Task: structure prediction
Amino acid sequence: MRPKKAFKGHGKGTFSLAYSKDYRCLLTAGLDQEALVWNPYVERVPIFRLKGHVSALCGVAVVPGTPQIISADMKGVFRLWDMRNFRCVQTFGGKEAHLTNLSDFCILPNHRRIVGGGSSLSLFDYMDDWDEEWLTETA
Result:
């Protein structure tokens, strides 16, 4: 079987994929420190590059029921993006959260938490109000 489309944008490879049903776009996280936003019906180039991480990305996810994207890098830094304008609205995690060597994360929408896993697990409570502070716990 042959692929129907081929998307080329990550020079060092893709590490994570997500899809936004609400905004109908595909998200990819690469080892080249940026997440890409794709229109799944157009295969030429990504529609936007989410830049700002200084380390290879380990994942990207859509926060269900919101216009929010979370990207995370292997140094444990999370970035919250607004999908409506592709701007970073918050950065958190990293050394101050005692989260290093991040290898994966998941969103727990019913509990409004993000769990990051590396050498330890860290839980981040996220708020629906974008003006609220993010609270950090380390387990």
